[in-house]
Amino acid sequence: MNKQSVSNETAQSPRKRATNRDVAKLAGVSVATVSYVINNRTDQHISESTQKKVRQAINFLNYSPNPYAVGLNSSQRNSIVIRSSEKISLLAETEILHFMRGFNPICERNDCQLAYSTDKRATQIVATACICYDMPNEEFHTLCDENYIPVLALDCHINDPIFYQVCVDYQKMYAAAAERLGDNFRYVCVTPQNEEVRRHITEIFPNVQFVTTYADLRNVDRNGNILLSQSSLFEAFGNPSNANIFRYDAHIAPRMQKVFDCLQKAVNRITVKNEDHFVSI
User: Fold this and answer.
1) 70 phi/psi in degrees, rounded to 5
2) Rounded to two decimals, what is the model's pTM?
3) Within 10 Å of residue 83's Cβ, how many Cβ atoms?
4) 210 has which bridge partners?
5) Rounded CA separation 24/30 (Å)
6) C-alpha atoms less than 13 angstroms from C-alpha of 71 in its C-beta half-sphere
7) With the CA atoms of 73, 78, 81 and 82 taken in that order, what torsion angle do they form, in degrees rounded to the nearest 10?
8) H or E element, residue 26
9) Closest C-alpha to 153, from 196, 189, 216
């Protein structure tokens, strides 16, 4: 990849700043309706479908209706903020730190600043783009409704083609584990906050053990064949030479670059097919 910041428009297609009229035209509504949606006017009855169309248009056109987003002009360093669920466990936050350690070099090569926000409120984010890690659907959409920057769903099934979604291919993981360990193995992983991901895992793996706390981790029976796929658990389980433990890591490095590539496309408003917003690695 050529060195390129995530918020720059492609040189071949410079774009002027969008206006509220552009948003109204794309959404098929009046300028007043755009204003009502942006300002969360409760005295005006606007259907949920109309509000969604307006927010989609705002995101697609990169319209900046608030002073925080307007301040993110091309003279400032680009930034990516990672947000997590309000109920995230300490183990899951450790996994985020592992992701950041691998993702940050890509950001630095592209002159982009990476940060993890401990704020769990659905507030406006002062950044070029946001990554939501393992977030329940309701929290994800509530946060997105407050922001007009590209938001990517990481390790959470959102099932909304407006947003890029980068997730682990659990079917591929199961096949790799079965080839290595046979059919008799247990998948140990950090408890997902996203219910759809948790359901998907239990549908694919007959034997799953979720861990939420370090006490859970200490109580894991180390006997029998065990599958791991998260960096934080690789470290917790220690010696990688244990024959009964399969550390599946085929997704870790490719996921870093894929997340950044998706953010580039989202920030630069590059049009892709709906199905291309759903990425499994």
Assistant:
1) -60, -35
2) 0.75
3) 27
4) 189
5) 5
6) 8
7) 140
8) helix 20-27
9) 196
Q: Is-contact 4 109, C-beta < 8 A? A: no
Mean pLDDT of successive 10-residue stretches along the chain, which has 281 residues: 42 58 88 76 78 84 58 60 94 95 95 93 88 96 86 94 94 97 96 96 98 94 95 87 90 95 90 91 94
Tell me phi and psi for residue 63, to 5 degrees.
-75, 135
> Is the CB of residue 96 less than 8 Å from the CB of residue 82?
yes
Cα-based distances in Å from 140 to 75, 81, 152: 29, 14, 10
Residues in the chain: 281
Closest alpha carbon to 278 in 131, 128, 201, 169:
169
User: Which pLDDT does position 72 carry in this prediction?
Assistant: 36
Q: What pLDDT, on a 0 to 100 scale, did the predictor assign at position 3? A: 40
A 10 A CB-CB count for 76 gives: 11
pLDDT score of 217 = 92
CA-CA distances (angstroms) from residue 227 to 134, 174, 189? 20, 9, 9
What is the rounded distance in angstroms from the CA atom of residue 32 to the CA atom of residue 74?
29
- Say if CB 179 and CB 220 are below 8 A apart: no
